[in-house]
Amino acid sequence: MNKKKLKIARRKIDQLDNSIFTLIRKRTKVVKYMLSLKQFKNQIVDQKRINAILKNIRKKSVQHGVDSKITSRIWKTMIWSYISYQRSNFKKK
What we know:
The protein is mostly helical. It is 81% helix and 0% strand. It has helices at 3-37, 47-64, 68-89.
């Protein structure tokens, strides 16, 4: 094992993680806004949209040579995390 190369690769991962965090922060702001637009709690889960997103992610994964099991799992986790967030922060209007 080349420790120097491993250290460099880990720094790259750290940089990517920082970029991902910034995107999650931006996504959260949009989700908060979307939640303010919803009048009923049953508007939080849109299964058709979830299916379309996951289908699109699988397609992009195949096109770009990324393991679709990884990307699908990441997106499912993200989607359901935001659904949970919305459910716990929903306020009736």
